Amino acid sequence: MASLWRKLTHHDGNGWWNLPHTASNEPNPPHEGPIGGAWLGNIWRIMTYGGVSHAGPGFYWLVGLFLSIVTLIEVWLFDIGAVLGGWYIPLLLILSLLKFIGVVAFFMHLRFDHRLFTYLFGASMVVGIFIFTLLLLLLEFGNQPPN
Amino acid sequence: MTQAATTEHHTPVEHTTTGLNNRKLLMWAFLGSDVMFFGAFIATYLVYRGKSLVGPYPSEVLNIPITTVSTFVLLMSSLAMVLALHYVKEGEKNKGTLWILVVVVLGTIFMGFQFVEFREFAHLGLTPRTNIFGTTFFILTGIHGAHVTIGVIWMAFLAYSSNSGALRSDNALDLEIAGLYWHFVDIVWIVIFTVIYLISANDAPPPGMESVIH
After folding, report:
1. What is the complex's ipTM, to 2 decimals?
2. Ramachandran quadrant class, B2 (left: phi over 0; alpha: psi -120 to 50; beta: rest)
3. pLDDT above 70: percentage of residues in chain B
4. CB contact (8 A) between residue B12 and residue A93
């Protein structure tokens, strides 16, 4: 189990979440797949690409299928929204986040590209979400009359 | 100064301060600023959500089945974009051109959906001047539509370049940068579809307010 976890979270020998030091125009490290280490990388290589590039058409079709399925789940949740009650919006936001990450990580190649690009875009996201969350809170609670 | 050299493995090496291509870095910086741009309009929509004093209200006009189809079209255009980049990098000119054209066609179909939706809303009496929902909705989706339009024009030029042989594997970065822009338009729509459509589509008229649509 520990070995499987290590393989799933492995990237370039430093862990999956450690973003690459190399730009996307440089090839993958040996036995490195789009989502993990050697064992999983070999499966992906067989399923999706020949190990020449970071990922090939087969892998991109899989990501496209994933995005489509998540969208269908979102619409299904919309249909049964009344049953979900307070879970409806959090579930939709989580599914939306999954699609967001799928496009940014694999279609925009941040998973394979130099970490500086991820930091640049990620910093914008963090600052943007922080500012606009503050704005929403201010306008929601800032106009309350004093007791 | 940006200067691309080539190693013995034909891997372009960027002689820049960061070691990365400056144009690509600039596009990521632009996308970061565009996050703020769209974030402001999405936040504005949320601030004024449910505060319209007259109809039509979101539950009366938003059409989830149609928007689901247009969302699927835009998602598939992103898939076509990444496939186009793959084939251009591989030097497969015909496949590269074909997939860029698929992006153009799907982007145009998405714009068509948006045009039909806007016309339908106007027919139902919702314009940017009708109420605060109309104002915030049309500004947000309209600006997104403008981004899609720019992207379609950009892709059409790249399809022509690819077909004429000007876009090749050695300058595929031109397509990669355009692709970053296109994928960003897609992820903005992912957020809009969730926040504006799926979450707001059940926003009914406030208590005491009558629907204007019968």
Report:
1. 0.87
2. beta
3. 90
4. no
